[in-house]
Batch of 2 targets.
Target 1
Amino acid sequence: MELTGAEIVIRCLQEEQVEHVFGYPGGAVLFIYDALFQQDKVKHILVRHEQAAVHAADGYARSSDKVGVALVTSGPGLTNAVTGIATAYMDSIPMVIISGQVPTYAIGEDAFQEVDAVGITRPCVKHNFLVKDVKDIAATIKKAFYLARSGRPGPVLVDIPKDVSNHKTRFEYPDSVNIRSYHPQGKGDSGQIRLAAQMLLEARRPMIYSGGGVVLSGASGQLIDLVRLLDFPCTNTLMGLGGFPASDKRFVGMLGMHGTYEANMAMQHCDVLLAVGARFDDRVIGNVEHFAEVPRKIIHIDIDPSSIAKRVKVDVPIVGELKLVLDELLSVLRSNKQAPNASDMAAWWKQVDEWRGIGGGMRYKNSSEIIKPQFVIEKLHEITGGDAFITSDVGQHQMWAAQYYKFEKPRRWINSGGLGTMGFGLPAAMGVQMVNPGAMVACVTGEGSIQMNIQELSTCKQFHLPIKIILLNNGYLGMVRQWQEFFHGNRYSETYLNALPDFVRLAEAYGHVGMRIEKPADVETALKEAFARKDDLVFLDFKTDPTENVFPMVPGGRGLSEIILAEEL
Amino acid sequence: MRHIISLLMENEAGALSRVAGLFSARGYNIESLIVAPTEDPTLSRMTIVTSGSDAVIEQINKQLNKLVDVAALIDLNDGEHLEREMMLVKVNTHSGNREELKRISDNFHGRVIDESKNTRTIELTDTCARLDSFLEAIGHDSILETVRTGASGIGRGERILKL
């Protein structure tokens, strides 16, 4: 029997076990939506803006081990999706985006809602395809899913012209994929792994630094075993939080621009550094020259060779699947009779603990008069038992959530780390809630960010998503204001949002529960009530201290040891 | 340092823009870039001449390899190789320089492929540096037009780039 291209698209999604697709209909995808309507295996979540569809698919993928799927129409549907695609690309999130295109005969004629989708997305996808023949749809979608989830994951776009989605052919879904020009590495080089093991055992001031790669590749168990076996200090990047449990005494906290004093100092002064699924980016090691001033040996494990030796020189590069490489490294270490030198390790831990004493992990001055944003996050952690999925937007609230919600498990912390996309949090939370029904999902946000995708409150109503929105409302674009305070002479250029809506009434207008909390004493009760309402979306508008800043801070372009602590200002 | 990178890629629409886009997006230099199908019509061979520090060249190689359409790649400068570029030069011949031009052209193994009352077009194939020397030798004043293909290259002896 012959099927239309549109029917084939849906059959492919079924074959890939896709349960949810986030999307928005339009002219070029009418046939696909028609095919979607005539089946009930693949459920469609109708968002209110295409950017949100992609962020939702992204949150879906980050909080599960599935590939997120979004469906958008041509032209503006696709351009709206680009921010979401770029967000996923920067954080290596496996996703397939299907976009409609004008009919093949109209391509290049500036047709209505025509845009060069493949051209526009080329720099922000792992790969993309324009399908010009209905016979190619099935094989292309198979390839798209394979590319999205294998190797270093990433978003893949499949652009399908309207006429192609209406042409007919026999449907056959390929069993396997073979792309002759694409062979992601599996195991790491055994010689290099043995070299790395030796270097780790001979280290006097070792440090383990892990990133988003550990979370994405499901190598958290291996990382935990490794850190505990060696008894080395371990830090996580913003993307890597949850990869190693925050409650373990070997955890020195997040590192980087707003990382702990102890993590940054240990990173700067270690003599052997093991980097796992992390990429030494500018927000992590600050100034490269400053970082290089202290000589250290670097072992770098990553699935993507281009992440290795990009910003810093690496002594032992190991390319491969983190899980497989760490398994092999663990077995080499376990079969080795040598152990790290005990007195060296004792001295190093003494030093690290001294730094801990100075920095004290994370510290802020609480108040009984005004709500401190950090206090809200601490209470959120307490009331959810540290077991919620936390999404965030971008800014001060994001850093406070990262610092004060002590993540114990991978895939619980969902944020736009690479691109830094405001408007990510709420739609991402929708995806998280869809794939984790019944789980506690909170979106920590600011009054700037939440307004960048506020329309999704409507989607949440339609699909009964009981997300808790934790708005840390300080009336400012806080992170920009902080930089203006520190580096631009207190000139708060365009960072004061003096025409904010009444968020409680706004939430109510969308059919949700809204609460305004103005006193520190009411924070706990409000959070408890919100989480007790298991079936409701509750929008909590916390009026927080507008002058609060994020500390510690390594100013942009400076070195890790030039870190500023709260009490120094 | 100047490097010649040779690669085999899927002969598909958009493959060239993936490479060109990569260079502009990451701020890498392109001195020249040429591409044409190979004996296997599903594969194109591309030769890119670029320059940069060792670290930049390493990144260029890795980033190119990362493109899904790139099937195989070598940096010709990592070993013995041959380099050739073709050039067409149209020179003006009215100032009585015909003899001198012929002498220089013969020295460089040039071939006259067109001639008119006041012009002569010479075809030359050699290394990029030799082509530069030729242009210098005949002098910029007599050059009316130059067209260069950009370098292509191949490994010496057993050094082969093939799938």
Target 2
Amino acid sequence: MTHKTLNLNVPTLTRVEGEGAMHVTVKDGIVDNVELEIYEPPRMFEALLRGRGYAEPVDITARICGICPVAYQMSAAHAIESIGGVVPGGAIRELRRLLYCGEWIESHVLHIAFLHAPDFVGVDSGIEIARLHPALMAEVLHLKKTGNRILDVVGGRPIHPVNVRLGGFYRAPTRNELESLSADLERAHAGAISMLEWTSTFEFPSIPVRLANHTEYVSLRHPGEYPFNEGRIVSNRGLDIDVETFGERLREYQVAHSTALHAVLDDDRRYQTGPLARWMNNADLVPASIRAVADELGVGATETNPFRSILVRGLEVLWAVEEAQRIIATYRRPSRPAVDVAPVAGTGHGCTEAPRGVLYHRYDIDAAGIITDAVIVPPTSQNQAAIETDLRDFVESHLDLDDHTLGHRCEQVIRNYDPCISCATHFLRFSIDRDAS
Amino acid sequence: MNHAPRRLLIGVGNRDRGDDAVGPIVCDLVREQRLADLGIAVFEGSVVDLPTWWGVADEVTIVDAAEPAGEPGRVSVVDALADRLASPAAVSTHAIDVGAAIELARALGRLPAALHVVGVEGHSFDFGAPLTPSVRRAARRVAAEFTRRARLPVAAP
């Protein structure tokens, strides 16, 4: 049926990075308004950081998210270290990448199997998937647990790692400690492939061609490796700037319907960040083993359908498992777990790839090492406008769907981005009022 | 897991959130007893992978804070093999709780031989707050009772 007038209201997106709701209004077959409403009070972390010591953000900002604390730690560390030109290398750099592998694995697997996959399977939860596919979900749980084990061994805890400091770590794990992960990683590798093969059987809704054509995909790009901590900010439209310039060109702004800031480049340049962007800008940097799996599953070097982001996340899980194996196989414990980072007055910019996309930090620090200003732009902020645009285009091109299916697909559109709000999107409750007069 | 039957104590909760720490603190108290053949695990974050921590022959006890209901420190014990805990209708990354994790284990066919959930009713969950006195007393009581039972032989599967 065709909706002449339709109001889709999602009153409660709970447990989000900012609690929120979603409203879509259609009038005379045209989408009149789309709002991703985040109404949770701001958490004031940037204000909290002002006046604190320059070494504290790695611990304070980790508490912003229980799923991706490493991203906050890494962006903070790189931003502050950059002021004095400190660049930890060798084993410390490798340990940071290993820690990030753990976070990508645990975060991505949770989203794939427990939040996103139920949409495609047609059930409400991962528990129901477990009833349908117990053997597969047992391996998925082991895979996720392996990610948390990496965080535990390298970071000191399976969540909110406490072993990270400016310049590196408080303690470097021994080779034996890292090798204790090897058996789990080998099993996790098989689990990641099984999970990928399963998700590749899903039916993916189509999107309007214009949606892909109108989107700019922004990510880090490193000359020689799939990006975690380092690189330039690039896009499919020729953007190629350093992190400092990215920070200067980022503009956050308030919208009336959300307490979470939106972000654009150059005042009005909307973009999206996350796995699709990373893959689009860096697919040539993954090992042949990952490329072969992608080819087998039909994942191209350029994927623009956000519903297929679940496949790219799966490939990133597989890549993170292999990267962790590589790092452990070549690890030599550093003579010192950290390099010294002295306070230097100035401004530092840091950008790393959180599971959900680019996470930008900026710190102004005085000569005494006190933070005078802090700016944190999480990927969810950057993606909010893209989510609203996707919703608008999706609804407009699928008005023939019945209310239930359209509402369900709108939830999927939001979950495609794995925003921190996706933690709650399984609690969406739609109230649909239709007036066809 | 194909290991010999063992006892496992799991404490769930955030040590920095007042009475939510009761599960981890019970684990601390039991750990001090240095009991042989006892596994102890603390979950301060997601419990979604809880089903991977036990074997099907194990005897598992989970201690978690229960929501306030007017009697802080009240201890309730649920046999999770016989009864189901109330759980959210659907699961999200943050919202999966012990009840949902047990249902996940049930769906996977990975329930242990014995599974008891001990709920200790909390009062204050403020950041940085200590355990309220009645909850602290309950933690000691739960730890002592667990220790007493743990000194008995594990039941044959």
